[in-house]
Design a protein that fits this description.
Elements: H1 2-15, H2 31-43, H3 50-70, H4 77-93, E1 98-101, H5 102-108, E2 118-121, E3 131-133, E4 137-139, H6 141-159
Parallel strand pairs: 1-2
Antiparallel strand pairs: 3-4
Helix pairs in contact: 1-6, 2-3, 3-4, 4-6
């Protein structure tokens, strides 16, 4: 869904006569924190044992919350913070795994979660992966907020002279 949000943001930004080069002029504080969070998220998919994978996943989400919070004045950062914090909270409360609605998975017609970072359950948290968004898949409210934030960030960054 994030790839689609990026593509849509670029298209909308260009439709509003934005300049894609302006995105590069956005200044982020603590960018190294973002890079560490992404690296930890990537490492969390490696077969390091369920407990280790889940710890890395939760830690990466909390680092992203801190990163978006310290960049609060960047366009759409408050919305991104809310989305990531929502995901971080629900994952932390479910022992490092995102609860996925079995009904949503069934409605979407896809297989099981297939990894230790997701738990399919008949009684998921309302903030877990419960939203079926065709053609993308099953997502959480936090995922949706983050995708909207990415789209807004791109459009606003392209439109705003730096």
């Amino acid at each position: 869904m994030l790839v689609s949000a990026i593509a849509a943001g670029l298209l909308v930004g260009l439709a509003f006569r934005g300049d894609i080069r302006r995105i590069a002029s956005v200044h982020f504080r603590w960018l190294v924190l973002f890079c560490i969070a992404l690296a930890l998220r990537l490492i969390s998919t490696a077969p390091l044992g369920e407990t280790n994978q889940r710890l890395l996943y939760v830690f990466s989400l909390f680092l992203l919350v801190v990163f978006t919070f310290v960049n609060w004045k960047v366009p759409a950062a408050p919305l991104a913070t809310l989305g990531i914090a929502s995901n971080a909270a629900v994952v932390a409360l479910h022992e490092g795994a995102m609860p996925v609605s079995s009904a949503a998975v069934e409605a979407r017609g896809v297989g099981g979660a297939g990894d230790p970072l997701h738990i399919i359950t008949a009684d998921p948290s309302p903030f877990g992966d419960v939203l079926v968004i065709p053609p993308f898949g099953v997502y959480s409210v936090g995922d949706l907020l983050l995708a909207v934030a990415v789209l807004i960030f791109i459009v606003e960054s392209m439109r705003t002279p730096k």
